[in-house]
Amino acid sequence: MDGAFVGLDGLLPVRAICALTGRSPATHYRSLAPRVHGPKPRRPAPVNKLTDEEVVQVLDRLNSEEFADKAPAQVGAILLDQGTYLCSESSMYRILRGHGQVRERRRQATHPAKKKPELVAAQPNDVWSWDITKLPSPIRGVYYDLMVIIDLFSRYVVHWHITTRESGLGSKEFIADAVMIHGTPGVIHADRGTSMTSKPVADLMIDLGIDRSHSRPRVSNDNPYSEAAFKTTKYHHTYPGRFGSRQDAIAWANGFFLYYNFEHRHSGIGLHTPASVFDGTYMAIHARRATVLQNAYTATPHRFSRTPLPPAGPSAAWINQPQQSEVAAHA
Question: pLDDT value at position 200?
């Protein structure tokens, strides 16, 4: 193979010879410079390298009182104005870097991690969660804002409102209306949207003695109950996808949330309706279900492999489950 290359060298291009001999050009070029075993040879020092004495002189000048707080570009310019040239700007940086003197000297902003919300709701009105979602209008790019507050423990939609434009003042009135109807919750959780973190809403929370809780930035599962409720809303078979007007959206939402609160059997609360858990009547319903199953088992025991029981009722609901001891304390 090497003999063929030698015979054709100078007559044809290397790629043509490789094509004729079936040899890769990379293999050919690699064979011209065989691999050297062991450490790579040390790079020879450039002829214009500064001597050790010159490096010390440059470093002393850079660390002098006159230039200690100046960048190498400034130092080089000042020295030139003074009629002195020590070395290039890149050489100054290289010398400083070699002596560990290149770093950011300005005070840098620090952004500590946001605290992870850890909330537990053991009964209605312990924790509310609220969020805003978009409802498409007839005009492309224009949306109505659906604001929804749900109770974490019962999944009950405490309050909802549709507006054409969200704002801090509007959000304050929205929360105040919910509190007026259902009482004051212990905590209200939301993401970090402009309305949720607005001053009017913050002032209202302080005045009412409600603890504020917010999701971490860009962490969607810090507000899972509101997100899940919006998915249930928009995946419902009656959801039109687009609304002709704000009045159409209100009419649809009114019917949907009546269904959701009073008819929808929620899998997260033992297949009870949110309204029955919110008002406490679910316990009687659970007992009736158990009686019906027991009667069925007594009448036809051969149809069951074990004693049937209704789905377990709701237990403590949480966002980012805290320590088990804390969950038990709320239970």
Answer: 94
Closest CA to 317 of 330, 304, 306: 330
Q: What is the pLDDT of residue 189?
A: 94
Cα distance between residue 156 and residue 239, in whole Å: 19
**Cα separation values, 60 from 66, 75, 179, 191, Å:** 11, 12, 70, 55
Q: At how many degrees (to 10) do helices 199-208 and 168-182 cross?
A: 20
Phi first, then psi, for residue 212 (nearest 5°) are -95, 140
Q: Give the distance from CA 171 to its chain's centroid.
A: 23
| DSSP symbol at 316 | -
End-to-end CA distance of the chain: 83
The CA–CA distances, whole Å, from 183 to 126, 180, 208 equal 11, 6, 10
Biggest alpha carbon–alpha carbon distance for the chain: 110
Asked if residues 277 and 269 have their Cβ atoms less than 8 Å apart, the reply is yes
The residue among 120, 164, 111, 112 whose CA lies nearest residue 142 is 164
Phi and psi at residue 190, in whole multiples of 5°?
Answer: -155, 170
The CA angle 188-191-193, to the nearest 5 degrees, is 115
Q: Which residues contact 191 (CB under 8 A, 6 or more apart)?
A: 131, 214, 215, 222, 223
Domains of the chain by residue range: 2-32, 52-98, 119-274
Structure token digits, residue 136? 């498409």
Number of H helices and E strands in the chain, helices first, is 13, 7
Does residue 92 surpass a pLDDT of 70? yes
Q: Give the single-character DSSP code of 12.
A: B
pTM above 0.70, yes or no: no
- Specify the CATH architecture of the domain 119-274: 2-Layer Sandwich (3.30)
